[in-house]
Fold:
Amino acid sequence: MTTSATDASTAGVSPIYSLDSRWNSERPHILVMACSDGRLQQNLDEFLATHLNITRYDRVYAPGGPGVLTSHGIEFLRSDQFRRECDFLIRAHAIEEVILVFHGPSADGPAEATCADYGRIYPRMTPQEIRHQQEVDAAEIVQSGFGHRTSDLRISVFRCEATAAGGIQFVRLPGR
Ligand SMILES: [Zn+2]
Structure:
């Protein structure tokens, strides 16, 4: 007796967990780009849900967050790759708004909150200088846009900041 490809691929595989909620095929048309840093994720989810009312979104999480879209001199291949990934999502998923989230300490926040990827690329910069670099990078991304969608795409930019008092705050950087 032969086994079909379908039988073979499902043999011995049974669900270990099922959700009560239903599959929603509608695309959210929002892309959030943020750093992979796990210290950030719950804060970001809360901000998106409570301040922006966004709970469903495409996401690109990578070390450095939106910073991967800027060339940083030696990082050109990386930025080019991420730009192409984002351009694909924007086209294929009909993205209408991109939300870019940098992170780090507030002006008087703890240095350890600095984005590790920015620390890797700019090892001699102070946390204050990295904050400034993120603002330069944000302006570059907003200016250059994404592939063919440079005019009708909304781009919002934020930074998630750890404060000296141990709190979390989000600030808005210039977008469009
Ligand atoms: Zn980071």
